[in-house]
Amino acid sequence: MIRANDPGKYNDATTEARRLTGGDVILIVRDGKLGNGFSVQARIETLAILPAILRNVADEIERQLLEGSA
After folding, report:
1. Which residues make beta-bridge pairs with 35?
2. What is the 3-state secondary structure (H, E, C) of the chain?
3. Residues 41, 28, 59, CA angle at the centre, nearest 5°?
4. How much is the CA Rg of the chain, to the nearest whole Å?
5. Considering the domain boundaries, does residue 24 fall inside one?
6. Is 5 within a domain?
7. Which pLDDT belongs to residue 68?
8. In a domain, 6, yes or no
9. Are 30 and 36 in contact (CB under 8 A)?
10. Spatial CA neighbour of 14 closest among 46, 52, 41, 43
């Protein structure tokens, strides 16, 4: 189960990224030192559109992969 307000295993890395960038952070880790996971530290406005952001990123990745295959 994903719990929105509990710090996860990648919370420290997300905090560091937020400190370095000064922005909202969405961190997705695959095959990391602590396994797979994700962490989000963002304003409520960003959380409200997070599904749309992730869909947009997925669509862009697919588009670039298809263009690279042509």
Report:
1. 32
2. CCCCCCCCCCHHHHHHHHHHHCCCEEEEEEEECCEEEEEEECCHHHHHHHHHHHHHHHHHHHHHHHHHHC
3. 105
4. 14
5. yes
6. no
7. 87
8. no
9. yes
10. 41
- Give yes or no for a contact between 29 and 6, defined as CB atoms under 8 angstroms apart: no
The predicted pLDDT at position 64 comes to: 95
Give the model's pLDDT for residue 7: 79
Low-confidence ranges of the chain (pLDDT < 70): 1-5, 70
Residue 22 is assigned to a structural domain of this protein: yes
Instruction: Tell me which residue range forms the domain holding 55.
Output: 11-69
Q: What is the pLDDT of residue 6?
A: 72
CA angle (12, 18, 20) in 5-degree steps:
105
Residues sharing a CB contact under 8 Å with residue 9, sequence separation 6 or more, in sequence order: 34, 35, 37, 39
Q: What's the pLDDT at 70?
A: 56
* Beta pairing partners, 66: none
What is the count of structural domains for the chain?
Answer: 1
